[in-house]
Hints:
By secondary structure, the chain is an alpha/beta fold.
Amino acid sequence: MLMSCVNQMMxxxxxxxxxxxxxxxxxxxxKGMGVKFLLLDIDNTLTEHNGKxxxxxxxxxxxxxxxxxxxxxxxxxxxxxxxxxxxxxxGLQYEYSSRKPLRVGLKNIVERLxxxxxxxxxxxxxxxxxxxxxxxxxxxxxxxxxxxxERRLFLRIKRFLEKPFLKKAxxxxxxxRL
Length: 178
């Protein structure tokens, strides 16, 4: 009984899918997951940590998604000014100060946009915010490897603590492009 509870808790930290970078996820991959709408993290997912503009690869990727009718929005723990400006460059709706891993920010934007949870996924680079938040909210979760190596000690420690979950996720039957 105790092990069952522990395993269920561990599963909250496991992504449904893992890819190297966000632009490695094809439209076919997304559609194959049954997903039509994506919630996108910013830092180390679409740009470097604290980057002002999306990476060129991310821009090309988002353009392809738009062409095939896959919706996207930004959901970030970042402040209003930065998130609004970043989302504005992309022409996307956004939720700032989303408080991931809490469900409230994810719930707010999904309800505001009228997206069904069953067709929505979150893509991010952090297990303890993006993946835990998405799993707690009940949507599909996609982990991507960070664009750059973390410079801040706190984030480097978090990356180290994510390793057991990443190792376990790699053993699952998920789409892997590492």
